[in-house]
Amino acid sequence: MIRLKNDEEIKRIRESCKMLAEVYQDLIPSVEEGISTLEVNRICHDLITKRGGTPAFLDYSGYPASICISINDEVIHGIPSDRVIKDGDLVSLDLGIDLKGYFSDSAITVPVGNISPDAKKLIEVTKQALSAGIDACVHGNRIKDISASVFKVADKHNYGVVREFCGHGVGFEVHESPQIPNYVHPGPNPRIKKGMVLAIEPMINLGTEKVNILDDDWTVVTADGKISAHFEHTLAVFEDHTEILTIPG
Ligand code: MF3
Ligand code: CO
């Protein structure tokens, strides 16, 4: 069941999303050469709690940290550790905030120092894929319009589109119905309607779309060891427009 949100509920979710965007603004400058991902996690946790929010991923299905930090061939769900960020790393951050029961979700891939031309292009194309998905996310379209738009951008560049993980409804929980795959597959294809709050999140690999999960049971890595990028926004659908909620207010 897809839970639609009324204007008051969207207002609360918007506040959670604005907080998330502000946290990213404050956090991203610290994502640089020499810092450990555990330290980034600590800074992030403090930024959220001092604003009165709760990190939504902490303890979600047993996830042990406040933010996911995935470097280079890590696609998503990287667990903060003593690993130190290096020059040339591609650092994907994925963060959710629970603000008084209203949930936001957003991801960004941050280039650190001098990254390769391949990495630069992958970041640009993944951003473009998200943007194409957002353009298709309008009242009256269907979920597969989002999937097809995202996939088309990545596929044009022969990149691998991760199949096992997808976008989703959000707002009252971290993950709600519907699922929003980043490729067209034969599954439910609900109509997009006003009152939906959706997170679109392409995970795009430079090489194969195939992924593995590490022994920590969380970290998703590319099967061929090539780099991956991830961008995500939370959106609210209105009858005559769609609002990107996870951008600074
Ligand atoms: N990153 C996921 C998403 O954007 C949610 C993270 S689940 C967690 O939908 F357990 F890893 F935190
Ligand atoms: Co998400």
TrEMBL record:
Keywords: Aminopeptidase, Hydrolase, Metal-binding, Protease. It holds the Pfam family Peptidase_M24. The keyword Metal-binding applies. SUPFAM superfamilies: Creatinase/aminopeptidase (SSF55920). One of its GO terms (biological process) is proteolysis. InterPro entries: Creatinase/aminopeptidase-like, Pept_M24, Pept_M24_MAP, Pept_M24A_MAP1. Residues 12-237 form the Peptidase M24 domain. It catalyses: Release of N-terminal amino acids, preferentially methionine, from peptides and arylamides. The keyword Metal-binding applies. Its EC number is 3.4.11.18. Substrate binds at residues 77, 175. Its cofactor is Co(2+); Zn(2+); Mn(2+); Fe(2+). GO terms for molecular function: initiator methionyl aminopeptidase activity; metal ion binding; metalloaminopeptidase activity. Removes the N-terminal methionine from nascent proteins. The N-terminal methionine is often cleaved when the second residue in the primary sequence is small and uncharged (Met-Ala-, Cys, Gly, Pro, Ser, Thr, or Val). Requires deformylation of the N(alpha)-formylated initiator methionine before it can be hydrolyzed. Belongs to the peptidase M24A family. Methionine aminopeptidase type 1 subfamily. Monomer. This is Methionine aminopeptidase. It comes from Candidatus Thalassospirochaeta sargassi.
